Amino acid sequence: MKLNQRSFGKLYDKLASKIYRFVFFKVRSAEIAQDLTHDTFLKGWQYCQKNEVEFPQAIFYQAARQQIADFWRKQKFQVVSLDAKPLEMIDDQPSLDERLAKNDELNQMFAVLATLPEDQQEILTWRYLDGYSYRQISRILNKPSGTIRVTAHRALKQLKEKWNQC
After folding, report:
1. Domain count of the fold of the chain
2. Quick one: 121 and 154 in the same domain?
3. What residues does the RNA polymerase sigma-70 region domain cover (predicted)?
């Protein structure tokens, strides 16, 4: 199916906060996450206009992963000051992600989660933060759902072990 404006709007409403959170976890900057989320939906829209899409969520998550990879690839060639402060959204009240990021326990959990391989991080994020089924994740990653279940189980086991060591 090709997306029309109305179905794209509904999909955007459904996915925008999830895609933003997914990107934010990878780049840890609200401003950059907003920009990459915008670019993700633009690329996804362009793709869906030209191609028949069976599972549009997968297209948008794949686009987000590509945007994140491109962002970090470009960062390799930039000098980063260790004194630089993280970019923050210009807003009267901090966003939910910023408030949660300030929580010490959550930061510790992110640190533990970051020790897992990237595919395990993504699967746990999609499964437990975004509430996707194993089947939905398998469609996003184009892997069998059994593989996703096993990977999630192993990742949770590793996460629990590392968390208990803290």
Report:
1. 2
2. yes
3. 11-76
